[in-house]
Amino acid sequence: FEFNVMVVGGAGLGKSTMVNTIFKSKVSRRSCQPDEEYNTPKTVEIKSISHVIEEKGIRLKLTITDTPGFGDHVNNSNCWQPIIRYINDQYEKYLNEEISIRRRKRIPDTRVHCCIYFIAPSGHSLKAVDIEALKKLVQVVNVIPVIAKSDSLTLEERQAFKERIQQDLADNHIRVYPDMDNLDLDEEEINNNVELMNRIPFAVVGSTASHLVGSKNVLARKTRWGIVEVENSSHCEFIHLRDMVIRTHLQDLKEVTAQVHYELYRHERLET
Amino acid sequence: FEFNVMVVGGAGLGKSTMVNTIFKSKVSRRSCQPDEEYNTPKTVEIKSISHVIEEKGIRLKLTITDTPGFGDHVNNSNCWQPIIRYINDQYEKYLNEEISIRRRKRIPDTRVHCCIYFIAPSGHSLKAVDIEALKKLVQVVNVIPVIAKSDSLTLEERQAFKERIQQDLADNHIRVYPDMDNLDLDEEEINNNVELMNRIPFAVVGSTASHLVGSKNVLARKTRWGIVEVENSSHCEFIHLRDMVIRTHLQDLKEVTAQVHYELYRHERLET
Ligand SMILES: Nc1nc2c(ncn2[C@@H]2O[C@H](COP(=O)(O)OP(=O)(O)O)[C@@H](O)[C@H]2O)c(=O)[nH]1
Ligand SMILES: Nc1nc2c(ncn2[C@@H]2O[C@H](COP(=O)(O)OP(=O)(O)O)[C@@H](O)[C@H]2O)c(=O)[nH]1
After folding, report:
1. How far is Cα A121 from Cα B13, in angstroms, rounded to an integer?
2. Contacts of B160 (CB under 8 A, 6+ apart)
């Protein structure tokens, strides 16, 4: 089982920390430490890290791809291009394998099943770069936007910001995951998804440090003022993100990638 | 006595909150409330707010100018231009008055004496836009860089970030205030300034809300995890910024503006 996630967003929004947090939050439960903590070079190239994790008794090769400082130049026109190209390259690889006469029984799947887009916690609205990048990204991949470093917002600021972002997405016709049009759902699933859609963008916090809270050692970010518990849903929505991506919607994210995004790519490639 | 400060930086970095914080921190001490709390429209134009405050028994008309969301476009080439133009317009106004035959006894001084530049708390390094903007700004005005919303960094992250910024400034030959070359100082003043220079960029936090801490009502930002006390120097460096700008270096900021920046402008204008 392969599952491929990509993290996209400006430098310093905690993407690399989040990559490690996701692995630590899944891996440490099975008392099997990640081989190495992935260090943040000032990424200038697209870098992936993979680990085998266990989810519901199923072993899964989770690969998370970190993208370079995005939107960090004076002129950021088309800064999303390298990311779109990487995503399409994976479709291309898959397509070549698929149409090959001597193709392997099981085609290695490096297609990006889910792109987590990090929004800076400005408290105002989406930036112009975010809007342009998201418009392009949702055309080729499942995108789940998150509010990065959400511990820098009060709960009131967070809620107001979230609503503003949802408005910005609607105004710009940006359909993030889950896009109800792509799903074949029963009534209960629809309700769950509507609830999820109202929560997106998830307000996340990342940390690989453990701290003692009460009698438990938990993943947390310790600041001068207190301890932000990463896996405590009354502190932030990391758990919602993690469970949606790796548990409840994993299968669906793969299916939509294969049946919607990849099919679109294949269609356009084979026509030309 | 007129003193003019400008705040510059990206949207959502807490500039408008800082404007109010500075006034509240000065004005409330004299039990004289600001007439109105300056509201953050999504500023699309340069806006000023003035209050008369008392400092060391001297009444001072403090004017703070808030600049529009800076660097918020996809392409931010020359986004500093409107700000540079505003600064030069004030020199132009002063010059016209100064060279006028029928000039007023006391020339109204709208020149920007100090520009506070807000750096996003990414934890990495200066962004390309910051470097380009700072290079241009220090040529025309006294610039004091600050780390915005510094409560989103741990003390370790803050110190590492500060040192990296100081390195970036040095590497790019960006001389922020206080620029020792511009000052005529005795030994004690030199030592104080060296200490200040090592602390810049100040790690600030802004808030206009008051909260009870112990038995005192203090300006603070209340989050889910604790109370960030704005005027507590073990929490952030707002006090250092405020005291430097409004107390210890006020006179010097005005003198350097008049004798260095304005003179340079005047020289270039009268030659052409
Ligand atoms: N306040 C806050 N800081 C964070 C969080 N996650 C990471 N950081 C800090 O933000 C800085 C940049 O994080 P990093 O993961 O390198 O960001 P990247 O450039 O997006 O990969 C580091 O100092 C991190 O410790 C978070 O959830 N909240
Ligand atoms: N974490 C944190 N948030 C702040 C701080 N100052 C302001 N904010 C919040 O950041 C958001 C944007 O602030 P604002 O003053 O409008 O920023 P501006 O666009 O630069 O003028 C608001 O939700 C503020 O409450 C601060 O020092 N720390």
Report:
1. 9
2. B123
- 40-99 of B, contacting A, C-beta below 8 A: 42, 69, 72-77
For tokens 């990424």, what's the residue? A43
DSSP summary character for residue A181: G
Specify the 3-state DSSP secondary structure of A146: strand
Q: Is A10 on the interface with B (CB under 8 A)?
A: yes
- Say whether A180 sits in a helix, a strand or coil: helix
DSSP β-ladder status, A216-222 and A210-213: antiparallel
pLDDT digits (tens, 9 = 90+) for A175-184: 999 987 766 6
Counting every residue, how long is chain A? 272
Chain-chain contact of A225 with B225 (C-beta, under 8 angstroms)? yes
8 Å CB contact between A207 and A221: yes
Torsion sign (Cα): A150, A153, A154, A157: negative
pLDDT tens-place string over residues A225-234: 899 999 999 9
- Ligand 1 centroid to Cα of residue A13, in Å, is 5
CB-CB neighbours of A69 under 10 Å: 21
CB A165 within 8 A of CB A126: yes
- A126 contact partners, CB below 8 Å, separation of at least 6: A119, A134, A164, A165, A168, A169
Distance spanning both ends of chain A, measured CA to CA: 32
- Nearest CA of chain B to the CA of A120: how many Å? 9
